[in-house]
């Protein structure tokens, strides 16, 4: 775990198919009041795709118990 806060946690994750490729996985529980911030963060990062000095959104989604974004 790289860090945690009131809304969720951030983990360093490794890619299973690309050697020496790591990314950040941000997760938050689905039961957060007002829906949390990850959905909005993913939408903003998708709009800023291919901009200089902006972290790259690799994947985002929702599971039964949590939302997640994968960033590089």
From TrEMBL:
Superkingdom of the source species: Eukaryota
GO cellular component, one term: microtubule cytoskeleton
InterPro entries: Kinase-like_dom_sf, Prot_kinase_dom
Keyword ATP-binding: yes
Keyword hit for Protein biosynthesis: no
Matches recorded under PROSITE patterns: PROTEIN_KINASE_DOM
Family: Belongs to the protein kinase superfamily. CK1 Ser/Thr protein kinase family.
Record's protein name: Protein kinase domain-containing protein
């Amino acid at each position: 775990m790289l860090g945690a806060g009131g809304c969720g946690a951030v983990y360093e994750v490794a890619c299973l198919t690309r050697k020496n490729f790591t990314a950040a996985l941000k997760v938050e529980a689905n039961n957060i009041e007002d829906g949390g911030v990850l959905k909005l963060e993913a939408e903003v990062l998708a709009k800023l795709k291919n901009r200089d000095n902006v972290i790259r959104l690799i994947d985002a989604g929702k599971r039964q118990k949590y939302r997640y974004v994968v960033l590089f």
